[in-house]
Design goal:
The complex is a heterodimer of chains A (about 1000) and B (about 450).
Chain A: H1 3-10, H2 20-24, H3 28-46, E1 49-53, E2 56-60, H4 65-78, H5 81-86, H6 90-93, H7 96-103, H8 111-117, H9 130-138, H10 146-152, E3 158-161, E4 164-167, H11 176-188, H12 193-200, H13 214-223, H14 229-239, H15 246-258, H16 263-268, H17 270-276, H18 282-295, H19 303-314, H20 319-335, H21 340-347, H22 356-369, H23 375-383, H24 390-395, H25 397-400, H26 432-441, H27 450-461, H28 468-471, H29 474-485, H30 494-513, H31 519-538, H32 560-576, E5 594-595, H33 596-608, H34 615-623, E6 625-626, H35 630-640, H36 643-653, H37 666-676, H38 694-698, E7 703-716, E8 721-734, H39 746-755, H40 765-768, H41 779-787, H42 795-805, H43 814-830, H44 836-846, H45 851-866, H46 872-884, H47 890-901, H48 906-922, H49 931-944, H50 951-955, H51 957-961, H52 965-976
Parallel strand pairs in A: 5-6
Antiparallel strand pairs in A: 1-2, 3-4, 7-8
Helix pairs in contact in A: 1-3, 3-4, 10-11, 14-15, 14-17, 15-18, 18-20, 19-20, 20-21, 20-22, 21-22, 21-23, 26-27, 27-32, 29-30, 29-31, 30-31, 30-32, 33-35, 34-37, 35-36, 36-37, 41-43, 42-43, 42-44, 43-45, 44-45, 44-46, 45-47, 46-48, 47-49, 48-49, 49-52
Chain B: E1 13-18, E2 23-27, E3 30-35, E4 37-38, E5 50-54, H1 57-71, E6 89-93, E7 96-102, E8 108-114, E9 119-123, E10 127-131, H2 135-141, E11 150-154, E12 169-174, H3 177-192, E13 194-200, H4 201-208, E14 220-225, E15 228-232, E16 240-242, E17 260-265, E18 271-277, E19 281-288, H5 302-305, H6 311-320, H7 329-336, H8 346-352, E20 356-359, E21 364-367, H9 374-378, H10 382-392, E22 396-401, E23 405-411, E24 416-422, E25 425-428, H11 431-436, H12 444-454
Parallel strand pairs in B: 3-11
Antiparallel strand pairs in B: 1-12, 2-3, 4-10, 5-9, 5-11, 6-7, 6-10, 7-8, 8-19, 13-17, 14-15, 14-16, 17-18, 18-19, 20-21, 22-23, 23-24, 24-25
Helix pairs in contact in B: 10-12
Classes of the chains: A mainly alpha (about 1000), B alpha+beta (about 450).
Chain lengths: ~1000, ~450
């Protein structure tokens, strides 16, 4: 009979034991030959197949449970370690009932290794436990691995019998090795003892011991002397620096507390306690400090050991650690009067914290034990002068007298920011090489101005793109096509996509012009177009990517995109019709400004060629204009321009009452008037506005923060129906006037669809600043470019962004957060004078959920104060209106002030006081949560600025709030000061 | 010529063989910090590099703990094989002991320099080697006290005969390609960085308190407001850009102990280095530009590898130098009679090959040969390898060549790229260059053109 037949016969046996005689007589050679046979049989018998029965999926295998066990036994005897580890269903076979009958007559050489190798597996052998392994070890079959033992031992005191969960601490005494050696591995290697104690530890009804779990077990055996109590205490502290996770480290600290060491014991453990002070887990440090507080005045306390770690403790970011450390230092100072000054110097380190209570604790220690004549101590305190709260300065006044104080606050100077400078100049594209390398990076969004520079440069160099230069654009076209074809990435904006389409359209013009030289270009384009069509055929949801730019509508994303589209279309038109006049709207200086001189020079080229500038291009050039160098611009305009364009430029730049004299370029005149005085309507333009909403031109929208009545659907289990339930949502609402668009239907829709392309739209640029207020998808990646449309008047766009991203305090999407962050960055870079909507945007961002947005809004304020372009009172007023309804936690605002806005310069402090005062005035008479901190900050600023508390606040809010227990003391202090 | 491009796959493993685990143990009247070491290029059988007392064991221990935290950290998205700790390396010689290591993601580099006054001992051998940094030893370091007598021993002073059956410490890790590459290329960045700001302890504490919570994705900037330094999400004139600012938390625990911190910044903001001064011990931490960009992928060394290094130079170099010795290329040229013109760029080339480290404070390169096979290091630049391939396949053509301008074409996949070298400006139409504009090293096309011109 062949070996294979033998095995097949074994599978027919009815008892597993019956196969042992066969396995026992196998020689090494037989075993080796058995391996391929067993592999084949395992595949046939042990592999699971899946099938559907009704609605459920089930699995089955050929082998019965008995046959599977028989095969597993054979594998156990014949396989090498590597083969056994790979074998199916072994994990379930590996249990006491199966192994014990065989292990006495056959233990493979790899037995220990197999078990120990599984230690890093999260799903360790399910039927292997500590007690069985030690049994095997005692019999000499298994060599324990320390890490594995540490993992397994944690469940050995919990047993389950039927439905009962039992606490069996006695299991620890079954083997001598357990308490002697294995129990200590728990302190040395990562394990889940905290988990076992929490989830396996059920109250044991059958046991008299009411308290169960590992802590209890340690107590039982340390109390009866079977485990060394001092060693447990010592190891608990040392375990906190073994880089274990937070839960495990914390568990050891808890065990230490649970064992309730006496002061004498703690005194003996000072080395270990000092080590625990260096733990990265604050819980462990706090527990160590708790015991330090107990022994600090005891005889035998090693003060120096604590002192060597005090610097790290006193500068910790965990308040309780600093506070406890100061308490210990105070105790040390009280016992060691001769070292009091030295200890006071150490305590100074806690003055670094921007927390009044910590500074207070530290300063009280210094005042109590410090010597006011000690120069070293005085100098040390002086170093912290700038970070001290006013009340603390008063406490430490005797120490701060007659010492030199270095101040950190910035000297305040009003900054005048120039944008028309050489450093800000956008590099010119002066050679074909420059153009080539501009095109190759234009779709990467490396610079926001690339969007404007590319169409301007292609107009300029179109005639030079001949012969060999044509083919050089091949890799660029390939990139543009790939860019259009690829899936949307997190950094890509709609404008990047638009630019790639524009470039593809430009190449089509080039192919028509130079068919011979552009053969490869045509091939690349056709290849990608074909792929696009192929994808469409394959996937019905695929949207075709290769449309001409004038066929694409950005209606869904908002009219704002039309301006950009128009500029690109104008560029294509100029290239097609061989017009060499430049685009007027291309920025000349960072981030998006046009110098007046350059605009005049560009306009003069139009007049020379007797061409009229395009309407949108001219309007955009005007909205991007910088009013620096006005005199020079006027001089040059008078020299180079004539007629209406001259008048327009004089109107735009003249500070005197220049005449509004629109004729041919009406839209540009209106734009110029609005750019000159963005927040009011010049009566001269009113007749030209027809039905346009003036609110939309000046962004003078009404806004309010209130609790809006909303409804949501809730399932009612009794009626088994969804019912509408009312709730109130805190909402910021802006009344943006939206033009009603009438959706075309039927024949009108068809005609509009057929004839809507191929035209450059007539646009009033102020009316285009509009999003569809539904969601943020890729606008965040366009934000900087969107702000470049109207740098002189960002309010219109700010209002749109508020409506899109800041109306509620719910969980914003990542895209919304990025939109807010990018918009704030754009505002900061533009550095223009802010109107009410910009203030609303900045103020709402100061209490927005994203920390980065809050920090940047603080920077906008800091710079706004420096350049006198922001109204702190208005910011405070807006935040107050928000906080009236507790729109967002006020803590966001107070934290922002402490971390980012406080002590920048004396002027900033004054403005901050104005801001907080304006905010407080708008708050409800019923104090909101965490208001105390804001009042404390106000008090601090009033003292720092040597000003007076606002009388309106005293008469109203403070009077009412003073009745509240939590605020009474703070307000009394404030009014007294 | 010494250049090997045999590509080594990620699956290759590196095995550290330590005869004993490193440990901190009480021996007679002192604590002995024994560091077990291993180098795959070690010539002698386990020599002892240093044996002596540490002048400031408390600070040295804190610095080594921080180094271990750096080595076990990872800031990129995938914590792949994070558990497999890469051991730091130590260079002993010229009266200085330097420990250096990288984070797992190769974006954070840390070094502890124990300066001549930081120890009182003897250098029995000079060299660089891996050292075993096991958790037990690191945990034990936490208990080192200020006035303790601690003896450091890098390698066993007395060679003990190993008993049969005694288990050695053996740890297999996947060949840390990023790590080795980062160790060699970060030195080039270090050499280019300049001192930007010096902070005393209080200023440093105040600054580190302004590190934002969480792991911010945005860049932060070190700015100065009045006399106060702070981190801000907004750039200002002369501010220092720091990507992945949360990585600075690795050194937070050192600040309360420091005398002074100096911040060095790369002129193009590709990295920042934070040097902590504790008198006789120095700790430095270098951060890559962004969390997801390790030093390894920056391609800083590519330009220097374009030219071959003659093998005899390396031989001379090894004969001439000893560990931690200041590297003086001119002196090397004179003593070994090498072409003075050709040796000008040798420093960056040698550091790219893992043969030099850079001391920011002293402002010089020092000899330190990474304890890995040289062909491992030189084979770690796939971009250079790809450039060679382009040349082999004759895909590079020089179109025009004048004094100041070279134009070339390089066949790419489906398209032909244009490469223009003009003065110090090098440009290419490929995606890599378009995206990074040379910020992350040269692309394979420019490299190929440069190699062609070189030959």
């Amino acid at each position: 009979m062949t070996l294979e037949n033998h095995y097949l016969e074994l599978l027919n046996l009815t008892k597993t034991e019956s196969i042992f005689p066969f396995l026992q007589q196998l020689t090494d050679k037989d075993k080796k030959e058995s391996v391929p046979i067993l592999k084949k049989l395992s595949k046939e018998y042990l592999t699971f197949t899946y099938y559907q029965e009704g609605d459920t999926y089930k699995s089955k295998r050929k082998a019965t449970d008995l046959q599977a066990t028989i095969l597993n036994y054979c594998q156990f005897v014949c396989y090498s370690l590597k083969e056994f580890e790979k074998a199916d269903s072994i994990r379930w076979f590996f249990k006491k009932e199966n192994i014990d009958p065989i292990i006495d007559w056959y233990c493979p050489s790899w037995f220990s290794d197999y078990i120990n190798n599984q230690k890093s597996d999260d799903f360790f052998l399910p039927n292997v436990n500590y007690l069985w392994l030690i049994e095997l070890h005692e019999k000499g079959y298994y060599q324990p691995d320390k890490e594995l033992i540490a993992k397994l031992i944690t469940s050995c005191i919990f047993e389950r019998e039927g439905k009962n969960d039992l606490f069996k601490p006695e299991n620890l005494t079954r083997f001598e090795l357990t308490l002697k050696e294995h129990i200590w591995y728990v302190f040395y290697y990562e394990n889940h003892i905290y988990w076992s104690d929490q989830y396996l530890n059920f109250k044991d009804k059958s046991n008299e011991i009411s308290e169960t779990g590992w802590m209890k077990a340690f107590k039982i055996y340390s109390d009866n002397g079977m485990i060394d109590r001092m060693r447990i205490l010592r190891e608990c502290q040392l375990a906190t620096v073994r880089n274990f996770n937070n839960s495990l480290s914390g568990w050891f600290s808890k065990l230490f507390e649970y064992l309730d060491p006496t002061n004498q014991e703690v005194l003996e453990l000072q080395d270990e306690l000092a080590t625990a002070l260096t733990s990265v887990q604050s819980k462990s440090v706090n527990v160590a400090l708790k015991y330090y507080k107990k022994i600090a005045t005891e005889k035998g306390f090693q003060a120096d050991l604590f002192i060597q770690n005090s610097s790290v403790l006193l500068t910790s970011s965990t308040k309780s650690i600093v506070s406890s450390s100061l308490m210990v230092l105070e105790k040390i100072a009280s016992k060691n009067k001769e070292r009091a000054n030295f200890i006071c110097e150490l305590a100074c380190e806690a003055l670094i914290h921007n927390d009044e209570s910590l500074q207070d604790r530290s300063s009280k220690l210094i005042v109590k034990y410090g010597d006011t004549s000690d120069e070293s101590l005085k100098q040390t305190i002086g170093l912290y002068h700038d970070t001290l709260f006013v009340s603390i300065k008063k406490q430490l006044a005797d120490f701060l007298r007659d010492i030199e104080i270095t101040t950190h606050a910035e000297e305040f100077k009003i900054q005048k920011i120039s944008v028309i400078t050489d450093e800000n100049k956008i590099p010119e594209i002066s050679t074909f090489d420059d153009l080539l390398f501009l095109t190759s990076q234009a779709f990467d969004g490396n610079q926001s101005y690339h969007f404007d520079l590319l169409p301007a440069s292609l107009i300029k160099f179109h005639e030079e793109i001949v012969n060999g230069n044509v083919s050089k654009l091949e890799p660029v076209l390939d990139r543009a096509c790939k860019f259009l074809m690829q899936d949307w990435s997190s950094t890509r904006g709609y404008l990047d996509d638009m630019l790639a389409t524009y470039f593809k359209d430009y190449i089509e013009i080039l192919i028509q012009k130079h068919p011979k030289e552009s053969k490869n270009l045509a091939e690349i384009l056709n290849k990608h177009k074909a792929k696009d069509l192929e994808e469409k055929q394959k996937w019905s949801y695929h949207q075709l990517r290769f449309y001409a730019l004038d066929q694409i509508t950005y209606r869904k994303r908002g009219k704002i995109y039309n301006v950009f589209q128009n500029i690109l279309l104008i560029s294509l038109e100029k290239i097609k019709t061989k017009q060499h006049t430049p685009l007027l709207s291309t920025p000349t200086h960072l981030p998006c400004w046009i110098s007046g001189v350059m605009l005049v020079e560009r306009l003069s080229l139009y007049q020379k060629e007797n061409k009229s500038p395009d309407d949108v291009d001219l309007q955009l050039a005007i909205t991007r204009i910088s009013f620096e160098d006005s005199e020079k611009t006027i001089r040059l305009a008078k020299e180079l321009l004539k007629d209406e364009l001259l008048n327009l430029m004089l109107f735009l730049f003249s500070t005197e009452q220049a005449l509004f004299n629109a004729n041919f370029y009406t839209k540009a005149w209106i734009t110029a008037s609005l750019v000159k005085s963005p927040r009011s309507i010049d009566p001269a333009i009113v007749p030209f506005l027809s039905n346009r909403s003036t609110v939309n031109l000046t962004a003078s929208y009404n806004w309010k923060v209130y609790e809006k009545e909303c409804f949501h659907q809730v399932y009612n289990y009794q009626s088994k129906k969804y019912i509408s339930e009312k709730y109130f949502r805190k909402t910021l609402e802006i009344d943006i006037v939206r033009e009603k668009t009438v959706e075309k239907t039927g024949l009108k829709k068809l005609i509009s669809k057929l004839f809507s392309s191929n035209q450059i739209l007539e646009l009033d640029i102020h009316d285009t600043i509009s999003f569809r207020p539904e969601d943020v998808s890729a606008e965040q990646n366009d934000a900087v470019r969107l702000f470049s449309l109207m740098p002189n008047f960002p309010d219109l766009l700010c209002a749109q962004i508020i409506e899109l991203a800041l109306t509620t305090n719910g969980d914003s999407s990542e895209a919304s957060k990025r939109l807010v962050v990018k918009s704030l960055q754009a505002l900061l870079n533009i550095g223009t004078t802010f109107g009410e909507m910009s203030h609303l945007f900045i103020a709402a961002s100061m209490i927005y959920q994203d920390k980065t947005a809050r920090s940047i809004s603080a920077e906008v304020w800091i710079r706004g104060v420096q350049t006198q372009k922001i109204d702190s009172r208005l910011i405070g007023f807006i935040i107050g209106k928000h906080e009236y309804t507790e729109f967002a936690p006020i803590k966001r605002f107070t934290d922002l002030i402490i971390e980012n806005m406080y002590q920048i310069s004396p002027e900033h402090n004054r403005q901050l006081e104005i801001m907080i005062s304006a905010c407080l005035k708008e708050l409800s008479m019923i104090p909101i949560k965490n208001l105390k901190k804001l009042i404390e900050l106000y008090n601090e600023l009033v003292s720092l600025n040597k000003s007076k508390v606002d009388s309106d606040l005293i008469a109203n809010q403070f009077k009412e709030w003073g009745k509240s227990d939590t605020l009474k003391k703070t307000i009394d202090n404030l009014i007294k000061s | 010529m010494y250049r090997s491009y045999q590509f080594e796959t990620m699956e290759e493993t590196l095995t550290y063989h330590y005869t004993n685990p490193s440990s901190l143990q009480r021996v007679n009247d002192h604590e002995e910090l024994f560091l077990s070491h291993y180098s795959e290029v070690q010539e002698k059988e386990a020599p002892c590099f240093f044996w002596g007392r540490l002048t400031n064991p408390y600070i040295t221990a804190k610095c080594l703990i921080t180094l271990s935290n750096v080595v076990r950290s990872s800031f990129n998205l995938s914590p792949f094989q994070l558990a497999l700790l890469k051991d730091p390396i130590v260079t002993a010689g010229n009266d200085t002991i330097r420990f250096e290591g990288f984070s797992h993601c190769a974006g954070v580099y840390a070094r502890v320099d124990v300066l001549p006054k930081g120890h009182d001992g003897e250098f029995l051998e000079c060299g660089t080697t891996n050292i075993d940094f096991n958790q037990d030893m690191i945990s034990a370091l936490a208990s080192v006290k200020k006035d303790e007598n601690v003896v450091l021993s890098v390698g066993k002073k007395e060679v003990s005969v190993q008993k049969n059956g005694e288990k050695t410490v053996e740890r297999k890790v996947p060949l840390p390609i990023k790590w080795i590459k980062g160790l060699s290329t970060v030195q080039i960045y270090l050499a280019e960085t300049e001192l930007a700001i010096t902070l005393n302890k209080i200023q440093a504490l105040q600054l580190f308190k302004t590190i934002p919570k969480g792991n911010p994705k945005e860049d932060y900037y070190l700015i100065k407001r009045g006399n106060k330094s702070t981190f801000s999400p907004v750039a200002q004139a002369n501010s220092i850009c720091i990507g992945g600012i949360h990585r600075l938390r690795l050194v937070e625990n050192l600040i309360p102990l420091v005398n002074e911190i100096k911040v060095f910044a790369h002129p193009d903001m590709k990295s920042t280095t934070w040097q902590f001064y504790f008198g006789e011990v120095r700790f430095s931490l270098s951060l890559s530009r962004e969390t997801w960009r390790g030093f390894s992928g920056e391609g800083a060394s590519l330009d220097s590898l374009v030219e071959d290094v003659p093998e005899e130079w390396l031989k001379y170099f090894d004969n001439f130098s000893y560990s931690n010795q200041k590297f003086n290329p001119t002196l090397l040229a004179i003593e070994e009679n090498l072409d003075i013109n050709k040796i000008e760029n040798i420093t960056s080339r040698l550091s790219a090959m893992g043969l030099l480290g850079y001391d920011l404070d002293e402002n010089y390169f020092f000899h330190r040969r990474l304890p890995f096979k040289l062909n491992r290091i030189t084979s770690l630049n796939p971009r250079l390898k790809n450039a060679e391939k382009l040349l082999e396949q004759e895909k590079v053509s020089i179109v025009s060549k004048s004094e100041n301008r070279i134009e070339a074409t390089v066949e790419g996949s489906g398209v032909t790229h244009s490469v223009v070298l003009e003065g110090k400006t090098e440009r290419c139409t490929c995606t890599w260059f378009s995206k990074h504009q040379g910020d992350r090293g040269l692309c394979k096309h420019i490299l190929a053109v440069k190699i062609k011109l070189e030959n």
